[in-house]
Amino acid sequence: MAEISEAHDSDSSKSTDNASEAPTQPESEPEFNPKLMRKTKPGLKRLFLTFSVLFSFLLGLQFLWKSVEIYRSPLPFREIDSLSTQLGSDHLIFPLHFHALFVGFDSDPDRLRLSILSEITKLTSQNPKCSHNYTLSVTVDSGSHCLHSPTTSPHSCSYQCGSITAIDFDQNDDVAIDERLVPVFGGKTNEYSVVVVKGESERAVVGKNRRAWVVVGSGREVEIAVVKVAEVLVKVFVNGGREEGSIRNEFMPVGADGRIVLSFNLLNADPRDWVYDWDFRKIDNNLLAPMIEALGPVANISVESQVLYHTPKASFSYWDQQLQSYVFSTKDLPFFVNSNEWHLDTSIAAGGRSKILQFVVYVPSAKECPLLLQLPNGEISNTNGFISPMWGGVIVWNPQGCLKDDNKPTARRTIPMQDLENMFEVFTGQFRQLFGFKSVNIYAGASGVWNLLPSERGFTEWELDVLSRQHTCFNLHSCASTLGSLSRLVQSLPRMIIMDEIGKQVKFSLEAAKLAQSNASNGVYESSADYPSKQFTLFCQLPQGKQGLWQRMLFSTHLLCLSATIPSSTVLLSTRSKRTEKI
């Protein structure tokens, strides 16, 4: 075994030596096989496969892009910016046409016209948002012939020479004179006319329509007449008898949807003393219906009523021995309305963006009856009521004989109809005050006192014109401002979703704003009032969901723009809802 091992070791050593002595040979490289080589160029098959893969990639890329894309309906950004810039830099101009008629004068109409225009310029105050473009025509009727001043007004005067004389103004019936002037100046017209006549008893009256007349005495009648004519045209017909100006935004109690809900409430403070009811339907048909019909072009008004019990007031009163009654002063008015006990809720139809005005008839308990309101000067209020701006009004009604011993009646009583009529006349005055007008029928100007004829509808034609211009001016600027803010918001958030319904309503709002601007600039007040109500219904049908915030923003914008298109016209928009009696 040892020999074999040695032999094996010797053979291995020899092979190792031979391997080390042999030179190192490089490894053999793979030889090129011509049989496997492509002898022709690639054909259409490879090209088709390549384009198929590329097309599939591009097609899938579009689906992937659509799946992560933010949908945005195109909005008219340029038109919105143009409207906002135009209303921001330029005034919204309302054209107004005036006519002055001098009966029994021999003056030059052209000189009178220049004098009146000079006085109008002095009295006109520039509004930062809206202004007026005046055109004036003057007619002098001397009795034998008439002279007319040159004017650029497109409204030709319809007055026929000799239609009226100074004798027509000698009577003291101003209502009959006002009706007499309606056919003289062509009936329904948007022109404001002032008649100046000579007479013994001087007076100045503003009619229910767009007419006024001045009776001046002898002496400096021409100079006095010029000042009075300019004052009534600017201060009354344009500004509505307000000293602050022609446009007052804060005294326009109309909701964003152009609606007002008048909620009338009869409150019995303590039904253990007495219980009073009212015949509200008669009052509604006789007194409220004409007023609501007159305000139809300005707002859509609905009426509700209810009777509540156990409704004490929140303020205190004290006994006045001299007046033999309980008294509460104007300092107690902020605490009179008891919001905890007065549940002045309205129907579901009154919700949303409608403006709700509360009118309350408060019947005090026997413990504080009669209850009187004392004014700051110490006198007792004639109306025994007060208003709260943008909220409504309150009247305290004291039952007759409330100091007697029979203070515990068991039967339900009804407020006498005469007392109801008197109370609702006060409510009409309070409603006028909420719109910024005076409750008294007198305007005290620099040139004297003017008697304002009241209208059985609560608002005269020239007062409705003032409200219409105020309504259009405020809503149009609010619409342009909101649309401008909306445009900037959308452009600053590129990943905000904008659905087609939103874009559609934005375009409708922009069209309504342009229509309102065109009507105001051209003096076209006879347009349809049914368009805003249709668009309001359409917008309410938008679906809810993630776009709720958008819809609330655009809802106010859309309604402001549509409300601005409501003109001063005889077209009625009022649709009154059912009355509700709650016991």
Automatic annotation (TrEMBL):
Residues 1-14 have a biased composition (Basic and acidic residues). It is a multi-pass membrane protein. The chain crosses the membrane at residues 47-65. The keyword Transmembrane applies. InterPro entries: PtdIno-glycan_biosynth_class_S. It holds the Pfam family PIG-S. GO terms for biological process: attachment of GPI anchor to protein; GPI anchor biosynthetic process. GO terms for cellular component: GPI-anchor transamidase complex. Keywords: Endoplasmic reticulum, Glycoprotein, GPI-anchor biosynthesis, Membrane, Transmembrane, Transmembrane helix. Residues 15-27 have a biased composition (Polar residues). Belongs to the PIGS family. This is GPI transamidase component PIG-S-like isoform X3. It comes from Durio zibethinus. The gene is LOC111283339.
